[in-house]
Amino acid sequence: MQRTKSRFARLMRSMLLLSCVLAIGFAGGNYVAHNVEWPSVTQGSQARPSSDADPGAEASTQTDSQYPAFEEWTQDSAPNYYQVLGAAQVEEAPQPGEVRYGEPDGLGRTTGVVAGVTFDLMEEGLSRERGDLSSVYPTGWGHNREVDMAMPDGTIYHGSLFNRSHLLAKSLGGDDELHNLITGTRAQNVGANINGVEGGMAYCEGLARDWLWAHRRGTVTYRAVPIYKDSDLVARCVVVDLLSNDGSLNQRVVVHNAARGFAINYATGEFEATESAEDVAADIRRGLQTREVSVPAEQEADDTQVVPQGSPESENGERMVIVTGSGEAYHHDETCGGLTHAKSMRWVSVSEAEEMGRHPCGICGG
Question: 218 with 31: CB under 8 angstroms?
């Protein structure tokens, strides 16, 4: 009888131990999947990574030098609404194909995304139809209206001042849900976006796409974190880290959420025009012309493009594209920004370009 009780006691202890192990295992899985470490909202003029790994943490007075102190956007510091700060700062890379979104914070604000973007994830995003965003309202949304806005290349854009701006672009596999969207100006979203001159978030997205076209088995760690000041509902900027698995793509970029000619109330999302779009565009064009004139003669000669020699029509009717002497992409548009510093260019057929190992340009699409 005593032996029976002893065996029963040992069995109960074993079952209790097994239950604890399973409970810890499930809790650990939940932690890995959901408790992603994000920067908290800013206090004063700086932002920090959340010390308690809580994406919804309240603002803290603590700061960390890995996140830039907030600075007002200026035309001189970031004419196309982005600045390269240096090398990427990625503590832990996600698995290839993995996408993790932060939970909204206490004010309902989008907190960030980190992804291991692969060629397959990019292709899936490019082929997927864009979702209906008309009923998605990021914090600060609700005061939007159509405006005339001068763009970084001196043209005038007519349309909504604010876009529902993706942190992880659809073309990189990002979804169309609220946890991936912020209220961002048109300039923050795409910059000039004309004649291949990409700025804003599009600058970062183009870098990632171009690298993946050239390294189809590789992975780009892509981390985008909106930076808020105090209890603002609209982010002042987005910090983007891009790091390829071979280290050849390695940048930290700050993308400014601003628009020249407009004063934005970041606490509410309200805004007002401060300059006419025509005056701003004229000033931008004058600045661009001044920069072109001030280029030293020897540098200007080095950067002069060589007009592609050949015909855009092939004998068998195949589409012709442009290749450069040392680039990895092929282009269909002679004005593409990817050809700005090309020393030599020539027309070849698409099949010839692919045999050379070239891929479609991420700017003009090849």
Answer: no
> CA angle, 202 as apex, 200 and 203 as ends, to 5°?
75
Contacts with 83 (C-beta within 8 Å, 6 or more apart), sequence order: 77, 253, 254, 256
Q: Which amino acid is at 146?
A: E
Task: Tell me how far apart the alpha carbons of residues 181 and 238 are, in angstroms, rounded to a whole number.
Answer: 11
| pLDDT tens, position by position, 196-223 | 568 999 999 999 999 999 999 999 999 9
SS3 content of the chain, % helix, strand, coil (to 5): 30, 25, 50
How many DSSP H helices and E strands does the chain contain? 7, 16
How many Å separate Cα 276 from the centre of its chain?
29
Q: Which residues pair with 271 in a beta bridge?
A: 264
The span from the CA of 166 to the CA of 357, in Å, is 31
* Residue 28 pLDDT level (bands cut at 50, 70, 90): very low
Rounded to whole angstroms, the Cα distance separating 61 from 200 reads: 29
pTM over 0.70: no
Task: Measure the CA–CA gap between 185 and 260, rounded to whole angstroms.
Answer: 10
Of 77, 45, 137, nearest in space to 260 by CA? 77
> Which secondary structure element, helix H or strand E, spans residue 10, and what is its range?
helix 2-34
At the topology level, CATH places domain 38-291 in: Extracellular Endonuclease; Chain A (3.40.570)
Q: Do 204 and 219 form a contact (C-beta atoms < 8 A)?
A: no
Instruction: Yes or no: say if 263 and 274 are a contact pair by the CB < 8 Å rule.
Output: yes
Q: Which of 191, 175, 232 is nearest to 41 (CA)?
A: 232
Res. 349: pLDDT tops 60: yes
Q: Is the dihedral of CA 229, 234, 236, 241 positive or negative?
A: positive
CA distance 261 to 40: 30
Tell which phi-psi region holds residue 267, choosing left (phi > 0), alpha (psi between -120 and 50) or beta. alpha
**Domain extents for the chain?**
1-34, 38-291, 299-360
